[in-house]
Specification:
By secondary structure, the chain is of the alpha+beta class. It has an eight-stranded mixed beta sheet with strand order 7-6-5-8-3-2-9-10, with helices on one face. It has a five-stranded mixed beta sheet with strand order 11-12-15-13-14. Strands 20-21-22-26 form a four-stranded antiparallel beta sheet. The radius of gyration is 30 Å and the shape is elongated. The protein binds adenosine-5'-diphosphate (ADP) and magnesium ion. Residues 32, 35-36, 96, 101 line the site of magnesium ion.
Length: 575
């Protein structure tokens, strides 16, 4: 770090620091104290919370400690050991640098500190009351620091009033600790909320161990590794590529909220709409509406390329090369998704009996394929992006194509598979400005609602680019001249109305065209229940093989599941 002694920053440095209050709520105190422990290179951090953090927040670490003679100084405003000069402000390698946290906390709470460096005999104890130090003394303690914060905001009833219930404040605290445990898998975190262990990470250095603790086994195993591939010199010679690492969920593992995206820039937990957008765009057309991925993304880049001195809480950052960061992140996440797209395997509903003498029928049931497919084993992430060669065997229930492949029996959802094929076809045709059009020989009219008419007018030109030609034909009635050829033979008025409705969904004005394509593909695709000839099935499988994402339909559902040769052998008691 270069700077080890705590000093008060010169006014010209202090004045350049984004000013403001750092103690918004108990979770802000936890964040500042944990950051200090991490900056002190602690490998074990225990956080104890009572009364939603208002009664007590105690953080115990085994870090470097503060030399006895500097303990009071640590509570002075702009006193920091982490930076010194203006130049340091452009090259921040620690989480803290403002020298504001401890004085700000001591101004609104009672703070007790006990700290010891490795080369001191005993720890130094100090009580801070109303911002003033008292009762300094020596106490036994292994090297490290304990800071206890009591009666937070008690003398500030107006601000105390804004805090939510203990449960809510504890939730915010758990989020802070969870995020830092993801950023620092090598640190052993323990969070005790109201006496109960809410979080314990092993400090093994393995991110999957932290994921296991936070999100459970299934998610921890299913997450796909993200790695910035080395692609030679970057296009813009001036811009060193940011290093991106971490994990993202496969499209089959989702959450209903956006709160599962974690970003760390040079190990600092940051909020960034831009980074969130880059990740979500990488999942483009792979997720069902309203579903969001889980991701843990670490970005490292030269300290000069990122400004962390934007906001007092340091959770906002500014990138010098925003565009490069955005496109790199989007590309590597997309790469991980394509490389890791698994064929969901059929899971055993119950484990087969060990060695049945008279084997009863063994039940195989798709284990909730939609929500989260049975995860592939950690070591073998089932990496093929394209399909193996499949031999069509027949049709099941008029809905599924049965096919044999090198790994076993594939069951292909004919509707989902055809949707994927059509979606890619329409997109490609649209790009070449040559969407195949079907003229209607019979007179087809369609009545629309006021809302649908509005959409029809608003998107008229774009709709005609996809092959729709509609003419006004009376009050809220239109004559249909042509439709995209993929709607051939379909209930055209019904399809048009539903396509219009799909345009009205969602809020992002930008992705309506994507919804249009998906809706067209859905209406054009064969249905469950449509009988297909062997030739039609072979053709569909052949076309599916040629798509970029054969394993999922445009809504993110799987197009196929696999019953492996191994599962068959087990099921029949052959091994
Ligand atoms: P900053 O982190 O911005 O430097 P703080 O007010 O948070 O400012 O802390 C002031 C100083 O106190 C730090 O620079 C550091 O030297 C020391 N310090 C605070 N907490 C710890 C800790 N847990 N272990 C070791 N030193 C600490
Ligand atoms: Mg700090």
């Amino acid at each position: 770090m270069g700077v080890t002694e705590i000093r008060v920053l010169m006014p010209e440095v202090a004045s350049k620091i984004a000013a403001g209050e750092v103690v918004e709520r108990p979770a802000s105190v936890v964040k500042e104290l944990v950051e200090n422990s991490l900056d002190a290179n602690a490998t074990q951090i225990t956080i104890e919370v009572r009364g939603g953090g208002v009664n007590l927040i105690r953080v115990v670490d085994n870090g470097a400690g503060i030399p006895s003679g500097q303990v009071e100084l640590a509570f002075r405003r702009y006193a920091t050991s982490k930076i010194n000069t203006l130049a340091d402000l452009g090259n921040i390698v620690s989480l803290g640098f403002r020298g504001e946290a401890l004085p700000s906390i001591a101004a609104v709470a009672e703070v007790d500190i006990l700290t010891r460096t490795a080369d001191e005999e005993a720890g130094t104890y100090l009580e801070m009351r109303d911002g003033l130090g008292r009762g300094k003394g020596q106490r036994g303690r292994p090297p490290g620091t304990t800071i206890a914060v009591r009666n937070l905001l008690r003398n500030f009833p107006a601000r105390l009033k804004f805090l939510k219930s203990s449960a809510t404040e504890n939730g915010h605290i758990a989020t802070v600790v969870s995020q830092y445990s993801l950023a620092f898998p090598e640190v052993r975190f323990t969070l005790l909320l109201e006496g109960r262990a809410a979080l314990r990470t092993p400090g093994s250095g393995n991110l999957r161990d932290v994921l296991l603790e936070l999100y459970g086994l299934e998610v921890a195993q299913a997450m796909l590794e993200v790695a910035a591939r080395d692609e030679g010199p970057p296009a813009e010679a001036m811009a060193p590529l940011p290093q991106v690492s971490g994990v993202v969920s496969p499209p089959s593992v989702t959450r209903s909220g956006r709160g599962y995206l974690s970003f760390f820039v040079n190990r600092r937990w940051v909020n960034s709409r831009m980074l969130a957008r880059a990740v979500e765009e990488a999942y483009h057309a792979l997720l069902m509406a309203g579903k969001h991925p889980i991701a843990v993304i670490n970005i490292s880049l030269p300290t000069q390329d990122v400004d962390v001195n934007v906001h007092p809480t340091k959770t906002e950052v500014r990138f010098r090369q925003e565009g490069v960061i955005f496109s790199t992140l989007q590309r590597v996440v997309r790469g991980a998704l394509v490389a890791g797209a698994p064929v969901p395997r059929i899971a055993a509903a119950q484990p087969p009996p060990p060695s049945p003498r008279v084997p009863g029928p063994t039940l195989w049931a798709p284990g909730s394929i939609e929500a989260s497919p049975p995860a592939p084993p950690l070591a073998a992430p089932f990496p093929q992006a394209s399909l193996p060669i499949l031999r069509v065997l027949g049709q099941l229930s008029g809905s599924y194509i049965l096919a044999e492949g090198p790994e076993g029996l594939y069951l292909i959802d004919q509707h989902a598979a055809h949707e994927r094929v059509l979606c890619d076809r329409v997109r490609a045709q649209r790009q070449r400005q040559e969407v195949e059009v079907q003229g209607l020989l019979e007179l087809v009219t369609i009545e629309v609602t006021a809302r649908q008419e509005e959409l029809l007018k608003g998107h008229g030109e774009a709709l005609s680019g996809y092959g729709f030609a509609l003419e006004p034909f009376g009050v809220r009635t239109y004559l249909v001249r042509t439709v995209p050829a993929i709607l051939r033979g379909r209930d055209v008025p019904q399809a048009i109305r539903e396509v219009l409705d799909s345009l009205a969904e969602g809020d992002a004005a930008s992705d309506w065209e994507e919804r249009l394509v998906i809706s067209l593909a859905c209406h054009g695709a064969v249905r469950a229940g449509d009988t297909l000839s062997p030739e039609e099935m072979r053709e569909l499988v052949r076309q599916l093989e040629q798509t970029a994402h054969p394993h999922t339909c445009p809504h993110g559902r799987p197009t196929m599941i696999l019953l492996s040769a191994g599962q068959l052998e087990k099921g029949f008691g052959r091994r």
